[in-house]
C-alpha cells in the first residue's frame, strides 16, 4: 500500500467515476483501475462496488476511506512541519447536531485557514451517524449533547467506538418558537403551557429511540408530534404551525432568522453540549482551529 494509492481511491470516491478521477489525476483510466484493484487485493476488501451505472463506495470502503484521509492529513502535517512543503488542497469534515454555534465556528475556521484551495464539509445529521462518522474517521469532530437520561447509553457507545467526549458548556432547557406564537409574550414557559402546540423534533432514522434524540425530555408524551430532517423545515413549521422545539436556547438571528425566538423552559434538566473525537487520531491543524473556535463561542454562551 502506498500514499499514491490512497490518493487514487480518495479521488475516485470524490469524483464518482474512474474516468473523471483519471482525468483529474492526469493518468490513464486502465492505470488507475489497476492501482485501485491492487490496493483492494492487498487489503482484502472491496472499496468500490461496480454496477451498471458506475461505481459506489461500499460500507467497508467508507471505513477504509476514513482512515485513508487521516493518513494523508497526517502526512501533510509532517511534510509541512519538517520539509517546509506547503500542503495542497486540505480536507476537513465535522458532523453535528443542529447547532448554530457549530456553523459559526465552521465559518471562523474557513476565515482563519484562508487558503485559496480546500474541500471542507459540515454535516448536520443524526446522533448515531455523528458517532459513526467520527469512529470511521469520515469526520474528525462530532458535536452532540449528553444529559442524565442519555449519558449511560451514549457514553457506552462512544467508548466502545474508542472515542472521547469533551464538554464545551452546560445549557438549561429552552424552547424555540415563532414571534407570533402566543407563548412569545411569556418570559418563560412550562410543559403545561406547551400542551396545545405541535412539538417538532429531528428524525433519527433507524435509531429513533429516546436516547438518541437531539431534544431533551424526549420521553414526554405529546399529543401533536412532527419529525423533520433539516433546520429550515423545522423553523418554517415553527412559524407556520405555531409549533415549538426544545433546545439549548443558543440562537443566532443571522442563521435562524429574526422570526424565531428562545424562551426558558421551567423544567429540571440540563444539556452538556460538547464534541467527540477519536482516541487514535491526533487533532489536525484544521481540527485544532475548529475546536478553538467552538471554545470561543462556548465562553460567550
Question: Summarize this, please?
Answer:
This protein has 301 residues and is of the alpha/beta class.
Please describe what this structure looks like.
This protein is α/β, with parallel strands linked by helices and 301 residues long. It has three domains: 1-64, Winged helix-like DNA-binding domain superfamily/Winged helix DNA-binding domain (Arc Repressor Mutant, subunit A); 89-161 and 277-301, D-Maltodextrin-Binding Protein, domain 2 (3-Layer(aba) Sandwich); 173-269, D-Maltodextrin-Binding Protein, domain 2, CATH 3.40.190.10. The protein has eleven helices and twelve strands. Strands 4-3-5-12-6 form a five-stranded mixed sheet, sandwiched between helices. Strand 1 and strand 2 (54-57) form a beta hairpin. Helix 1 (3-15) packs across helix 3 (29-43). The model has no long low-confidence stretch (mean pLDDT 89).
C-alpha termini separation = 47 Å
The total count of strands amounts to 12
* CATH architectural grouping of the largest domain: 3-Layer(aba) Sandwich
Helix run count: 11
Based on CA inertia axes, which overall geometry fits? Answer: elongated
Number of domains: 3
CATH class of the largest domain: Alpha Beta
Overall pLDDT metric? 89
What Rg, in angstroms, do the CA atoms define? 22 Å
CATH fold label of the largest domain? D-Maltodextrin-Binding Protein, domain 2
| Helicity, as a percent range | 40-55%
Note the run of SSEs as H and E.
Answer: HHHEEHEHEHEHEEHEEHEHEEH
Which strand order spans the largest sheet, edge to edge or round the barrel? 4-3-5-12-6
Which class of secondary structure composition applies to the elements?
Answer: alpha/beta
Kindly estimate the percentage of residues that lie in beta strands according to DSSP.
Answer: 15-25%
* Low-pLDDT stretches: none
Main beta sheet: 5 strands, mixed
Amino acid at each position: 500500500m502506498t500514499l499514491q494509492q490512497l490518493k487514487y481511491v480518495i479521488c475516485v470516491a470524490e469524483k464518482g467515476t474512474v474516468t473523471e478521477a483519471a482525468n483529474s489525476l492526469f493518468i490513464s483510466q486502465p492505470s488507475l483501475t489497476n492501482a485501485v484493484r491492487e490496493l483492494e487485493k492487498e487489503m482484502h476488501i472491496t472499496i468500490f462496488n461496480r454496477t451498471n451505472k458506475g461505481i459506489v463506495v461500499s460500507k467497508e470502503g467508507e471505513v477504509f476511506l476514513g482512515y485513508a484521509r487521516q493518513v494523508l492529513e497526517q502526512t501533510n502535517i509532517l511534510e509541512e512541519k519538517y520539509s517546509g512543503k506547503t500542503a495542497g488542497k486540505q480536507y476537513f469534515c465535522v458532523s453535528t447536531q443542529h447547532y448554530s454555534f457549530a456553523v459559526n465556528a465552521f465559518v471562523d475556521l474557513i476565515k482563519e485557514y484562508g487558503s485559496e484551495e480546500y474541500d471542507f464539509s459540515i454535516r448536520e445529521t443524526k446522533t448515531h451517524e455523528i458517532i459513526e462518522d467520527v469512529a470511521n474517521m469520515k469526520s474528525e469532530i462530532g458535536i452532540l449533547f449528553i444529559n442524565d437520561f442519555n449519558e449511560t447509553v451514549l457514553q457506552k457507545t462512544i467508548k466502545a467506538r474508542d472515542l472521547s467526549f469533551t464538554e464545551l458548556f452546560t445549557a438549561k432547557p429552552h424552547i424555540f418558537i415563532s414571534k407570533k406564537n402566543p407563548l412569545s409574550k411569556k418570559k418563560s414557559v412550562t410543559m403545561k403551557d406547551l400542551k396545545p402546540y405541535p412539538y417538532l423534533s429531528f428524525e433519527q432514522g433507524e435509531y429513533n429511540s429516546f436516547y438518541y434524540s437531539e431534544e431533551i425530555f424526549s420521553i414526554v408524551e405529546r399529543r401533536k408530534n412532527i419529525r423533520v430532517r433539516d433546520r429550515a423545515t423545522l423553523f418554517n413549521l415553527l412559524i407556520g404551525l405555531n409549533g415549538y422545539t426544545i433546545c439549548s436556547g443558543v440562537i443566532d438571528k443571522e442563521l435562524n432568522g429574526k422570526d424565531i425566538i428562545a424562551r426558558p423552559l421551567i423544567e429540571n434538566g440540563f444539556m452538556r453540549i460538547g464534541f467527540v473525537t477519536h482516541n487514535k487520531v491526533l487533532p489536525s491543524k484544521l481540527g485544532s482551529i475548529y475546536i478553538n473556535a467552538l471554545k470561543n463561542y462556548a465562553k460567550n454562551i
